[in-house]
Amino acid sequence: MKYILVTGGVISGIGKGIIASSVGTILKSCGLHVTAIKIDPYINIDAGTFSPYEHVVPHITDAIQEWVMKQACVSVDDDGVEPQICVIELGGTVGDIESMPFIEAFRQFQFKVKRENFCNIHVSLIPQPSTTGEQKTKPTQNSVRELRGLGLSPDLIMCRCATPVETAVKEKISMFCHVEPTQVICVHDVSSVYKVPLLLEQQGVVSYFCQRLNLPVEMKPRKMLTKWKEMADRSDRLLEHVSIALVGKYTKLSDSYASVIKALEHSALAINHKLQVKYIDSADLEATTLQDEPVKYHEAWQKLCSSHGVLVPGGFGVRGTEGKMLAISWARKQNKPFLDASSTEFNPESRHPVVIEMPEHNPGQMGGTMRLGKRRTIFKSSSSLLRKLYGNVEYVEERHRHRFEVNPELTHHFEKKGLQFVGQDVEGERMEVIELDDHCYFVGVQYHPEFTSRPIKPSPPYFGLLLAAAGKLQSYLAKGCRLSPRYALKVLSFIHYLVEVQLKLLNCDTLDVHRFSSIY
How far is residue 475's CA from residue 479's CA, in Å, rounded to a whole number? Predict the structure, then answer.
C-alpha cells in the first residue's frame, strides 16, 4: 500500500480537499486503484457507548495509525479490488492544537510503512498583496519550517495563488523549503475546479509519484483523463442556465450543503447547463414570517416559484427538520384525521406520528446511534422513475445517515393518495424511496445519493432532478436513458468557440447569441 498525506498551512480552507481529489483523479486515470480518507483532526469520545474500561486511550497515535491502515484496505471500486494507493487529507492547519496527535501519528507512520510507501504533499498559500503585486513566499516558508519541526518533510509543495507562480518565486521556495524546483507545484486560480487535475498533470505530478513511490504505471495517453479534459473544457462553454431552489435550515453557510451542491453541479454539467442555486431559509416560507417580516416572506416565495426545480436536503425522514416535513406536510394536506400529523421528535404524544425514531435507537442518546453506511434498497415497482434513472436495476446500494424513518404502519394511507413507496430495505420494513403519481419529478430518498456522485458519473436522483428542471427528462427516458450524441456536444462547443472569436474581432465583451446566429 502506498500512502500520500496531504497537509495544509497558513490558512484553513486552502484547498487540501481539491488537491487530494485531483491527485486521486490523475492516479486513477493511470489504471491504479485509489482510495481516500478525510480526517477531521478532533478526538471525539461518545461516552454514552463506552464501557468503564474504555475511558482512557493510552496510545492515541497507535490507534490513529491502525485505523488508517484498516480503512485504506477497504475496496471502493465495483470490482472489489483492494486499493493500491490511499490519499489522506488531514484537515485543519499545521500548528493547530487539535491536529497535533495526528501529525505525530503520521510522523511515526512514515517509518512504519517505509519511505518508498509514504509521501507528503503540503498545500500552502502564496499571497499577492494588491499594493505591490508581488508574490510572497514567507508564509509558505514558515509553514514548511513548522511542519518539518514536527517531523514531516513535504515531498511536494503545492502553492495556492491567484496567478501562476513566477520562476524566481518557485526557486526561492525550493531553496528555503529543502525541495527541488520541480517539487514546487503551482495551483493558481482557474475557471473550474475540474481543471486542477489537468494542472497537476501538466506539471509532472504523475511522473514524480511513479519515481518516488515506484508505481507500476505506463506513461501513455489515458482515456479517463481525455474524458476529464473534455468535461473541464465543456464547463467553460455552457450557454443555458438551470436554477434550483435549495430549501434548508443552514442556508447562510453554503458549505453546510457542499456535497449537495457538488452533486447538482455534476448533473448540470452532464446536461450542458450552468447551475444557479437559490438558497432559501425554510423558516422564511412559514406563515409566521409573513406576519413578522412580510418582505422576507414574499422574497423567499418569489425565489422558490421562479426556480426550475426545488431541492430539500435530507430526504423524507433523515436528520434535520426540513427532511421530516416532506412526509408530515403531505399527510396534513390529505384529510382531517391527519391534521395533527407530526414527528415523535417534535411531538412524542402525536396521534399520527408520520415520522418515528427507529426501534433500535435509544431516545435521548444522540451519539453513536445512527443508521450509518452503505445499505441496499430494493425497488418494488418496475415502473419506478428512479429505477429507470438507475439503469432499470433491481436494487441500489447507497450511503445512509439517519435515526428517524417514515412510520411503516401509515404507509398504506399515503399510497392510497398517490404517494408511492417504490423502494424499501432488504427486510421490507423501512421506506427508502417515494414517488408521487402524475408528477413530472417528485422524488424523495431516505439515503444520501450526493455522497456517491462523481463529475463523470452524476448521482441518478440529482441527475433526474436536473433533467426535469431543464425540461429534458421525458426525452431522456424516451431515448432509453441516453443523452444526445457526443458529437452534438462538440459541435455546440465549436460554435461557441467561433462566437468567442467573433466577439474578439468586433471588440465586444458580451455574448449576443441572436446577433451572431445568422453567421453560423
Answer: 6
Give the phi and the psi of residue 300 in degrees, each rounded to 5.
-65, -45
Q: What is the pTM of this model?
A: 0.73
Which residue type, as a one-letter code, is found at position 10?
V
Cβ count near 56 (within 10 Å): 5
* 423-426: long-range pairs with CB below 8 Å, 24+: 423/377, 423/378, 423/379, 423/380, 423/384, 423/386, 423/387, 423/396, 424/377, 424/378, 424/380, 425/375, 425/376, 425/377, 425/378, 426/375, 426/376, 426/378
Residue 429's SS3 state is coil
Element (H, E) at 322: helix 321-332
* Alpha helices (H) along 120-276: 138-149, 167-177, 196-202, 205-212, 223-235, 258-270
pLDDT in tens, 152-208: 999 999 999 999 999 999 999 999 999 999 999 999 998 888 889 999 999 999 999
CATH architecture of 2-233: 3-Layer(aba) Sandwich (3.40)
Buried residues in 297-318 as b, exposed as e (16+ CB within 10 A): beebeebeeebbbbbbbbbbbb
Residues 506-515: contacts with CB under 8 Å, at least 24 apart: 513/239
Nearest to 235 by CA among 223, 245, 243, 227: 227
Cβ atoms of 30 and 113 closer than 8 Å: no
Give strand pairing partners of 107: none
134: its cell numbers: 508581488
373: which strand partners?
Answer: 400
Task: Name the CATH code of domain 238-345+368-507 (choices 3.40.50.300, 3.40.630.30, 3.40.50.880, 3.10.120.10).
Answer: 3.40.50.880
Question: Could you check whether 2-233 and 238-345+368-507 share the same CATH topology?
Answer: yes
Helix 223-235 with 16-28: angle, nearest 10 deg: 140
Per-residue pLDDT reduced to its tens digit, 20-67: 988 888 888 888 899 998 887 766 555 444 444 444 755 788 889 999
What is the Cα 362 distance to its own chain's centre?
Answer: 30
d(CA 176, CA 140): 10
